[in-house]
């Protein structure tokens, strides 16, 4: 694999303990965090309480309760300070329907700063005040602090740059997320033979085959050449099974009595959690499995009867890696069995900075718009940044890490337009997030203990061929273990 042209990179040696640095690949963005925990001793018995947090022109509200004297919310609000430089006061209003119950005011110059890994700020009780500053009945438990996107509260927060998005479900769709792919195994089914089958029509030679179903995967053997009640197949069927093996393997022996007409002779159901696992080249023992047949008795009642046996070798193959992506762009080549996996050789850190000149993907209020987010996949870990609302030049400034086990792997980063906002995913709608473009980065082209900063053109497939659109900026470091 050739190294990328040197002029494309702004790299430099990294010093210090790289594994303990926090968000050092992205721009540190200052946020004002407000955690609204709960309230007590509110006046009146018929309150429908909620809290409005306001900073300048931006405001966020908690969930609404009906007739609750001591509500609990435990919701976090994050206000980006680069848009509110002239604001000096934070206002937290306790409301009943649209009427004010009381408020708590904070001077931004007196709000403490928190830098992880410092412990989270402990919430405190604050007495509510009226518009003139006099104390009124009721208290509100709050924690207010200055932090950055490295704060643990960042992913769960309501963000001021998404103020136009309403509804709890919509807010979930714009937050950053981390997914882990399920562990995949090859399920090898060696169908050997069956014994003493009981065909429905004994006046003919049976033409039997085996059908195996695992989830939405279906495989069948050939019709046995020995057209007897003791057929022989000796065929291999290979499935891909995902932990935690919730779906059983369903096997049925079927007789082809006529063209397009098959009759089930017997069936068995096998739960994968009880199947042996093979980790090396040694052969696995075969077993006989009972076949059953469901028979209708007296027109209504159903009975299960023994319908002979089938001989199979059945096991989960853990010595191989199940390829769930193209081999040339794979981010993981480890075998499935944990016992066979090697130790990690380093850490991959990715800072997703921004994109410029994205294509408009939708129309809002008669103008072109894009609600963009990024997805990065490496190994079994997927990450999704938060969605930046209504911007053709979004800034994410989010950083993620992966363990590296093989340098001959690839990290894939895609940019998407979020369609699940403003009613795009209402029942009956089939909208899907639109792909804007993607880039792939080969780790074999990177040096360890070095940080690279680069703007990539996004590649998108169109009817006229591959087209380069926009610019996507990232910083990336491949760090060896010390």
What attributes characterize this protein structure?
single chain; 482 residues; mainly beta; Immunoglobulin-like; 3 domains; 5-stranded antiparallel sheet; 1% helix; 50% strand; elongated; C2D_MCTP_PRT_plant; transmembrane
In short, what is this structure?
This protein is mainly beta and 482 residues long. The protein has one helix at residues 168-172, and strands spanning 12-13, 31-40, 49-55, 58-61, 72-80, 89-96, 99-107, 124-129, 135-147, 158-159, 177-180, 184-195, 208-214, 217-220, 232-242, 249-258, 261-270, 276-278, 287-297, 301-317, 346-356, 362-364, 367-369, 372-378, 381-384, 395-404, 410-417, 434-442, 450-462, 465-480.
Tell me what the structure shows:
This protein is an all-beta fold. It folds into three domains: 6-14 and 326-480, Sandwich (Immunoglobulin-like), CATH 2.60.40; 30-147, Immunoglobulin-like (Sandwich); 184-317, Immunoglobulin-like (Sandwich), CATH 2.60.40. It is 1% helix and 50% strand. The chain has one helix at 168-172, and strands spanning 12-13, 31-40, 49-55, 58-61, 72-80, 89-96, 99-107, 124-129, 135-147, 158-159, 177-180, 184-195, 208-214, 217-220, 232-242, 249-258, 261-270, 276-278, 287-297, 301-317, 346-356, 362-364, 367-369, 372-378, 381-384, 395-404, 410-417, 434-442, 450-462, 465-480. Strands 1-29-30-21-26 form a five-stranded antiparallel β-sheet, with no helix packed on it. A five-stranded mixed β-sheet has the order 8-9-2-5-10, with no helix packed on it. The protein has a five-stranded antiparallel β-sheet with strand order 11-25-24-27-28, with no helix packed on it. The model is unreliable at 1-21 (pLDDT under 50).
């Amino acid at each position: 694999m050739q190294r990328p042209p040197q002029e494309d990179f702004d790299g430099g040696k990294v010093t210090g303990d790289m594994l303990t640095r926090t968000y050092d690949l992205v721009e540190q963005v200052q946020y004002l965090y407000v955690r609204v925990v709960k309230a007590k001793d509110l006046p009146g018995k018929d309150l429908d309480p909620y809290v409005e947090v306001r900073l300048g022109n931006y405001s966020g509200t908690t969930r609404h309760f009906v007739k609750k004297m001591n509500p609990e919310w435990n919701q976090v609000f994050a206000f980006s300070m680069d848009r509110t430089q002239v604001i000096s006061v934070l206002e937290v209003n306790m409301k009943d329907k649209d009427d004010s119950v009381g408020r708590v005011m904070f001077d931004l110059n007196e709000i403490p700063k928190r830098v992880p890994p410092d412990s989270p700020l402990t919430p405190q009780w604050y007495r509510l005040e009226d518009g003139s500053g006099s104390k009124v009945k009721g208290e509100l438990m709050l924690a207010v602090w200055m932090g950055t996107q490295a704060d643990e509260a960042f992913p769960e927060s309501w963000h001021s740059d998404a103020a136009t998005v309403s509804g709890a479900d919509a807010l979930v769709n714009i937050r950053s997320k981390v997914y882990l792919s399920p562990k995949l195994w090859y399920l090898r089914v060696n169908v050997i033979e069956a014994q003493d089958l009981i065909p429905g029509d004994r006046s003919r030679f049976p033409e039997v085959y085996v059908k195996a179903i695992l989830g939405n995967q279906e495989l069948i053997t050939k019709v046995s050449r020995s057209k007897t009640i003791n057929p022989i197949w000796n065929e291999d069927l290979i499935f891909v099974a995902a932990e935690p093996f919730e779906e059983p393997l369903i096997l049925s022996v079927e007789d082809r009595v006529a063209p397009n007409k098959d009759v089930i002779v017997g069936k068995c159901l096998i739960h994968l959690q009880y199947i042996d696992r093979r980790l090396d080249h040694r052969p696995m023992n075969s077993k006989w499995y009972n076949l059953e047949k469901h028979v209708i008795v007296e027109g209504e009642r159903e009975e299960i009867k023994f319908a002979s046996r089938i001989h199979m070798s059945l096991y989960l193959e853990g010595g191989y890696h199940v390829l769930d992506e193209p081999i040339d762009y794979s981010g993981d080549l480890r075998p499935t069995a944990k016992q066979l996996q090697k130790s990690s050789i380093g850490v991959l850190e990715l800072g997703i900075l921004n994109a410029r000149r994205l294509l408009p993907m939708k129309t809002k209020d008669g103008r072109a718009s894009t609600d963009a987010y990024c997805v990065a996949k490496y190994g079994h870990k997927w990450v999704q940044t938060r969605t930046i609302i209504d911007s053709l030049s979004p800034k994410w400034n989010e950083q993620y890490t992966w363990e590296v086990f093989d340098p001959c792997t690839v990290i894939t980063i895609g940019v998407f337009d979020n369609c699940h906002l403003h009613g795009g995913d209402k029942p009956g709608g089939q909208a899907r997030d639109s792909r804007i473009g993607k880039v792939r980065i080969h780790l074999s082209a990177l040096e360890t203990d070095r940080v690279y900063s680069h703007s990539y053109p996004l590649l998108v497939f169109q009817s006229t061929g591959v087209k380069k659109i926009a610019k996507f900026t990232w910083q990336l470091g491949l760090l060896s273990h010390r």
